[in-house]
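User: I'm putting together a small comparison set for a docking exercise, and I want a reference complex before I start. The sequence is below, and the ligand is adenosine monophosphate. Could you produce the 3D structure with the ligand included, as structure tokens?
Assistant: Of course. I'll restate your input first, then give the structure tokens for the complex.
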Amino acid sequence: MADCIFCKIAAGEIPSQKVYEDESVVAFKDLSPKAPVHVLIIPKKHIQSVAHFQAEDKDLAAHIFVDVVPKLADELKISSGGFRVVMNTGKNGGQTVHHLHVHLLGGRKMTWPPG
Ligand code: AMP
Ligand code: ZN
């Protein structure tokens, strides 16, 4: 999608520190990390948010959560200590980039509830 920063990152038009890429997904380090490990996992396809998933996206959603999240958590060595997966969605959810992204955070103890 034109003027979408994460579409540009997925296409390699804007530099990022990629930690993983396959045919449908890219993961890269968050520019403003909120934990010692903070990566964003995005679909290459522009989907606005988790509220905009369509039936045709089921395989993609499963791929992100069944394959990519646990694999990256292992590789980034946050599996055993525990980690947090966050999808800020829409205005009240605090979403600032309107291309679906999964925050994978770890390496420190988190608190609850979120601010
Ligand atoms: P959210 O507030 O959930 O929409 O998260 C957007 C995230 O994208 C924030 O954590 C930002 O730090 C991050 N971000 C914005 N631009 C970039 C970029 N060019 N490269 C890496 N991370 C970015
Ligand atoms: Zn996009």
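The chain has one domain: 5-106. The mean pLDDT is 98.
User: Thanks, that's exactly what I needed.
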